[in-house]
Amino acid sequence: MAQVRARVELNVGQRSHIPAEIVSFSGLKDGVEHVAVIFNQADQNQHTPLIRMHSECLTGDVFHSSRCDCGEQLNESIELMHQQGGILLYLRQEGRGIGLYNKIDAYVLQSQGMNTYEANNHLGFADDLREFSDAVLMLQALNIKQVRLMTNNPKKLNALRDAGIEVESVVGTHAHIKSGHVGNRAYLETKIQHGSHMLDIKKISKP
Ligand SMILES: Nc1nc2c(ncn2[C@@H]2O[C@H](COP(=O)(O)OP(=O)(O)OP(=O)(O)O)[C@@H](O)[C@H]2O)c(=O)[nH]1
Ligand SMILES: [Zn+2]
């Protein structure tokens, strides 16, 4: 595994010039470049860093599609890590691991009435293809042994615990609910019911 680092300044939401260090990893098991973004030198601080393992969502992260909450969660994480320090692992696991082409195919099925998991299954995929061993390797390479984990997904929590990384606490992200013709409320509710997500739908984000 190899890594390269450079300093960057990020401009997210209302905040500009957020200092960060971007680290790209190659030679990982997934065969793709996963990325770590380090805020306030969290890999060198004494206290327990905030960590988010964020799975790539081009439509949500870049274009802020109303179908999901990914871009808003990403920005929420960056803003909190700017305040408290932390490490964002940006994992190239588009569409819960099925890739963009298949995710868009799944969107077509969802428009016909399937939920996100049914659509994945209809296309011949399991509910969720992700596993987080590369994220563990990245944390180990960054010398992180104990974390405060930003997630509502119990699978991420268990993946770290099983790998021997201590999760001191879990910090839930807010519910970023979007209405409209193709909103994300059903997507979020399905994650809670079917995916055992700990998302508190009443903990709605401020606009
Ligand atoms: N297959 C499929 N994937 C989707 C759909 N909507 C979003 N995704 C993907 O779901 C993943 C969401 O990842 P995360 O932001 O890490 O969210 P999460 O696993 O729900 O966990 P937390 O946000 O940490 O609580 C991304 O890879 C998205 O591309 C969909 O309708 N179908
Ligand atoms: Zn998304």
TrEMBL record:
Residues 19-170 form the GTP cyclohydrolase II domain. Binds 1 zinc ion per subunit. Zn(2+) binds at C57, C68, C70. GTP binds at R52, M53, H54, S55, E56, Q73, E94, G95, R96, T116, T151, K156. The keyword Heme does not apply. Its EC number is 3.5.4.25. It holds the Pfam family GTP_cyclohydro2. Pathway: Cofactor biosynthesis; riboflavin biosynthesis; 5-amino-6-(D-ribitylamino)uracil from GTP: step 1/4. The keyword DNA-binding does not apply. It catalyses: GTP + 4 H2O = 2,5-diamino-6-hydroxy-4-(5-phosphoribosylamino)-pyrimidine + formate + 2 phosphate + 3 H(+). The active site is at D128, R130. InterPro entries: GTP_cyclohydro_II, RibA, RibA-like_sf. Keywords: GTP-binding, Hydrolase, Metal-binding, Nucleotide-binding, Riboflavin biosynthesis, Zinc. Catalyzes the conversion of GTP to 2,5-diamino-6-ribosylamino-4(3H)-pyrimidinone 5'-phosphate (DARP), formate and pyrophosphate. NCBIfam families: PRK00393.1. Belongs to the GTP cyclohydrolase II family. This is GTP cyclohydrolase-2. It comes from Pseudoalteromonas fenneropenaei.
